[in-house]
Specification:
two-stranded antiparallel ribbon, Arp2/3 complex 21 kDa subunit ARPC3
Length: 176
């Protein structure tokens, strides 16, 4: 029964990831995407740990490309998704969900994954110059850091604790 709950939760987060990233992104152009796809990555990692959260994010990228492709599949973005899940899990799994911890996770993902790796992947995929697309990606990322931190914090405060209770068995230990 315990593993069934974890698998069901992972499936729910996977579906939310695909929906929020691929089906209803807020803004999508070739080198920029603004979406709420970070939220299922964060929640998967907070509740299931860095490895399962990273796995769920990577599978979400692969399945999302199969269901609703927005260009060619590129494995670098799958690596980026996996690393995002790992980072959220390292900072927030079984730890207090403070503004500081959430900010540190979001900043690390923003700097290393979004601005660094994803910009590099786009240069490889589309042939753009790294420095040519970097300014717009920095501006987007800087504007989204406080938004992402606020959304993760508020969603955890009002929905995450409930979800965590579902994943706990009656003795109070985790089901995974």
């Amino acid at each position: 029964m315990k593993k069934i709950t974890v698998v069901a939760f992972m499936g729910l987060m996977l579906a939310m990831d695909i929906l929020l990233t691929r089906i209803v992104p807020v803004i999508q152009v070739e080198t920029l995407r603004i979406s709420f796809g970070f939220l299922p990555h964060a929640f998967s990692s907070i509740l299931l740990g860095p490895w399962l959260g990273g796995l769920n994010a990577a599978v979400g990228d692969i399945v999302g490309m199969a269901v609703a492709p927005r260009g060619p599949y590129f494995p670098g973005f799958t690596i980026s998704a996996f690393l995002s899940g790992i980072i959220y899990g390292v900072f927030l799994y079984k730890k207090p969900k403070t503004i500081f911890r959430i900010t540190m996770a979001v900043l690390l993902i923003t700097l290393f994954v979004d601005i660094g790796l994803n910009t590099y992947w786009l240069t490889l995929l589309y042939g753009y110059g790294f420095l040519a697309i970097l300014p717009a990606r920095i501006i987007k990322s800087a504007a989204l850091v406080p938004v992402n931190v606020s959304i993760i914090y508020l969603m955890w405060r009002y929905a995450g604790v409930y979800a965590e209770g579902i994943l706990l068995n009656h003795s109070g230990s985790r089901t995974i």
